[in-house]
Amino acid sequence: MLKVENLKIYYSTPIGFVKAVDGVSFEVKKGEVFGIAGESGCGKSTLVHSLILRKPPMTHKGGKAIFKGKDLMKLSREEARKIQYKELSIIPQYAMNALNPTKKIKDIVWDLAREHGMQDREEVEKLLKERLSMVKLSPKVAEMYPVELSGGMRQRATMVVSTLLNPDLLIADELTSALDVTTQRVVIELLHYFMQEGIVKSIIFVTHDLALLKQIADRVMVMYAGKVVEIGPMEEVLESPAHPYTQMLLDSLPRMGVHYKRQKLHGIPGYPISLLNPPQGCRFYTRCPYAMEHCPKIEPKLVQVSKEHYAACHLLGGEGSA
Question: Among 82, 113, 125, 180, which is least packed by CB within 10 angstroms?
Fold first, then answer.
């Protein structure tokens, strides 16, 4: 479905390049939900947005992103627009504010459908009302403006717009970050439903919340400071995290159950490094309790922990530049 190889996406600034995504590789398979996790500023949102459309100061500095035989990094603006929503679609980070407030939902959808070659407005509006019903919204919502909807309703309306043309790959970027727990569950169930009904074939789900990912993802990639530090099956990464950052990220989350009632939460000390001038070695070494002398000098490569589980840490013997 999607294969990303050594992708580098930087931001141009007056004092140099911010290396937001620096040599990232992964693959999304057909029929799976692929999670991308990490703290704010780790590069996860930059990564997924670069697949859709790159605007200055975002700059592609190297690597490939092969989607259905095409390198997304080589598409012109016009070519990218043709596949957006139809083959590759994104529900943006602030989905509740993503809809044009001056247009009714049906007009937003009609503009999108017409841009992709659909000519029968009656047919488009019929499809819209069917999809609104799928996400438990009244067909009357089609006649409303976004400002007339509650936050949760706008969220679901945005999901309808983003999936109306049955994209092969749907990217959900921090879709649940501004939602209460009940609404989060509704959103997760809707994404599952979209997969079951064949509305989308695969999903990339971006979040800082590993516990939430457990409810939806088949595999997860953990990022830190523009690098992949761990990747593998969701359950295995949660139960047996191999990288110190993943371990500490999990320790910072509350857990349910009698076994954890005395558990103390532990934050990750220190601050992320500047991506203007990152060290040539491990980017987590300044915050890592296991840091060794060679950690800031030699970049650890991803090494195999189990069949499909990889992590980049010198504790695992991952010496040498990846």
Answer: 180
Edge to edge, what strands does the sheet with 58-67 contain? Answer: 16-28, 2-13, 58-67, 70-71
Length of the chain in terms of residues written: 322
Inter-CA distances, 300 with 127, 220, 250, 279, 322, Å: 50, 19, 21, 12, 7
Number of domains in the chain: 1
Indicate whether 231 pLDDT > 90. yes
Any domain includes 309 = yes
Q: Cα–Cα distance between 238 and 210 in angstroms, integer?
A: 8
CB under 8 Å to 170, separation ≥6 — which residues?
A: 89, 90, 91, 162, 163, 191, 194, 200, 202, 203, 204
Q: Is residue 291 part of a domain?
A: yes
pLDDT tens per residue, range 114-138 = 999 999 999 999 999 999 999 999 9
The reply to whether 273 falls in a domain is: yes
The 8-class DSSP code of residue 72 comes to G
Task: Record the tokens describing residue 20, joined without a space.
Answer: 């937001």
Average pLDDT for the chain:
91
107, two tokens: 């007009």
Tokens 């989060």 correspond to 184
Instruction: Name the band, by pLDDT with cuts 50, 70 and 90, for residue 322.
Output: very low
185 is a domain residue: no
Average pLDDT over residues 184-200: 92
Residue 46, domain extent: 2-87+206-316
DSSP string, 115-166: HTT---HHHHHHHHHHHHHHTT--GGGGGS-GGGS-HHHHHHHHHHHHHTT-
Largest Cα–Cα distance of the chain, in whole Å?
67
267-298 residue pLDDT tens: 888 888 999 999 999 999 999 999 999 999 99
